[in-house]
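User: Hi! I'm working on a homework problem where we have to compare a predicted structure to a textbook description. Could you give me the structure for the chain below?
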Amino acid sequence: MNNNIKNYFEIDSGRKSFNLQFEICNLKFSIIIAAIGLTLAFAGESFGQNSSLLGPENQRQGLTLERSSWTYQKVLEARPIGLNDQVTVLVNNKSVFINDGQMDRKKNGYGSLKLSDWILLKGFSVIPDPQSAGDPKIRGEVDNKLRSQANLETREQLEFKISCKVVDIRPNGILVIEGTNFVENNDEVSNYSLSGEIRAEDIKPDNTVLSSSIASLRIKKYEEGHVRDGYRRGWMLKWLDKYQPF
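Assistant: Happy to help. Predicted structure tokens:
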């Protein structure tokens, strides 16, 4: 009996302690809400930190990204491009061509000709030919079958850098550029040429422009030497591929 009374008083004390803590939390929360409400109701113009706290107040500098960030990098401004200025073009041209063709043709023909009447020249006279050997006949049959299948897949990639010169400026501000690059190494010769039209705003601050931003792009590549001779086609193979006589 004494144990039950003791447990009852302990449970009742725990409940009262919990209720007291809950009421204290509600009171704190109400005080915080009231303080925020009074601050918003009576607050006027508020000021925040606008400069560093280091140094005298009259010598403190404003908090800008350029002055306070260790990783800040100043953005380069694009310089104006004029006639005869140079621009570096980054060429990265990729192309994939896949073609698949199939043809199945069958042709049958049959013909029969018979000459029933003819003429016979006898002296200066023309008389009917009796055709005693029988009527001439021609009979023919044609059976033509053709089946062909062709698959073609080509992949090309052209990547290089070339310096071009502004040769003309259109009335609307479009820049016309042209450039050539000639390299001769022993017996190996490489010649690149590029021309096209670009917008001034497509030129990056480092004075480069991508080939994908060039309109009317024209690229010409010419090579000669031992490497080129190893995979180029001869004139006979070119003629056979073009006309296909067989």
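For your comparison, note the following. The mean pLDDT is 78. Strands lie at 86-114, 119-122, 125-128, 137-169, 175-185, 188-198, 208-210, 215-224. Good luck with the assignment!
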